[in-house]
Amino acid sequence: MKEKSSRREFVKKSAFGAAALTLGASGFPASSYKRIIGANERLTVALVGAGRRFPGYLEAMAKNKDNVHVAYIADVMKSRREKGVSRFNEKVGYTPVLLNDFRRALEDRKVDAMFFAIPDHWHAPATWMALEAGKNVYVEKPLTHNPRENEVLLAYLKKYKKIVQMGNQQRSAPESIEAIKMIHEGAIGKPYLALAFYTNARGRVKNPVPAPPPAGLDWDLFQGPAPREQYVDNVFDYNWHWYGWRFGTAETGNNATHELDIARWALQVDYPQKVIVNAGKYHFVDDGWTMYDTMDATFTFAGDRTIKWDGKSRNGYSTYGSGRGTIVYGSEGTFYIDRGGYRMYDRSGKLMKDSKSSLGEAGTALGGGGGMTTLHIENFFEAIRGKAKLDSPIDEGGKSTLLCHLANIASRTQKELKINPSNGHILDKDAMKLWGRAYEPGWEPKGEFI
């Protein structure tokens, strides 16, 4: 099993060589070239992961099909990639090559960029493999599975100098950009507190039991960089988020990344000085969910600035009026920012400005998607072409992801964490044991990146 998917054995054992890929797999009819806006602008991409997030990419691919060609769709589950390519054909109008193993697309020198909508434990390794292969990368949040991978990715980026965007699409939302600009210009005085929140009513999940992998699933490749274990039902289908720490990063990594990023952006802070967390599992206590389902976290920063996270995965009470968002408090007023736009209030609570978004981005629905995602993807394309500044480079995305990791580590150790504000490292030897993770032999960072 290990030899089947081993990173170091893959190139030698591949029956789908780079030459074959370059010559044929990404080709398309001559008539298609008529749509291209200049050969130097045309990008060839691969979409990796055809699950819930995949449909959110289709609008961008259809809108930009004159100068963006999707050569491959990859997924480790046969039924998903087949369903994905059918939906793609219906929306965009042609049929990419289907792959079980995305590494075959890395061999194709025509591929300019990879999109990774895959489980959290794959995000960083897939990204650094793509960088090694000379590809640009759009990787969904959270950027990494653990803090050490943030540092590793930045080292890879420094060496390979490609474009890497994290999929925190609100960074490309015009209303969010406008609101943050106003905050930075003093519209509400000195901002001192950002309260980020997420509310959902997720239900009971199965108690996992050992079982054969479902038909069509490459379980070995699904595990990829994670140490090998027997399949349990139903870990593959989204529940990997909640069944232990091998694959997921709990709800904080899954969703807090978005709102904590807006909070950090608004307050103009990088690394905290202290992290205090209260978290627990309070709903369906006998089911298979092994993570906390409720978290209250406080991050304190220099300059008397604080970020709070209120995450409720399984209690749908709408505490703040919507399912997710960020409230920024300043000395002279308040901003309420979410995917629907923003509202600005003066210190007395009077509404001063209400700006609504027309992008239609999904809130707490699984997978999401909408105009905000499309703008974020288009920003990625234009950054590759050298025509735009990247909205969410990973040096920024990594800092927001780190807040999620620190909250998870504080929860797992049940400790108040003191942090080095210059680099985000935890000033506790026991807690720092969770800074990285174990890899399946052959999948860990190598050489200068260890």
- What is the CA-CA span between the terminal residues? 25 Å
In spatial order, strands of the major sheet run 16-15-14-13-7-12-11-10-17
Q: If classified by CATH, what would the architecture of the largest domain be?
A: 2-Layer Sandwich
Give the low-pLDDT segments: 1-5, 11-39
Oligomer: single chain
User: What portion of residues belong to β-strands?
Assistant: 15-25%
Shape: globular
Overview of this protein structure:
By secondary structure, the chain is of the alpha/beta class. The protein has 2 domains: 169 residues, NAD(P)-binding Rossmann-like Domain (Rossmann fold), CATH 3.40.50; 213 residues, 2-Layer Sandwich (Dihydrodipicolinate Reductase, domain 2), CATH 3.30.360.10. Helix content is 32%, strand content 20%. It contains 14 helices and 17 strands. The strands form 3 sheets. It has a 9-stranded mixed beta sheet. A 6-stranded parallel beta sheet has the order 3-2-1-4-5-6, with helices on both faces. It is globular. 46% of the residues are buried. The N terminus is likely disordered.
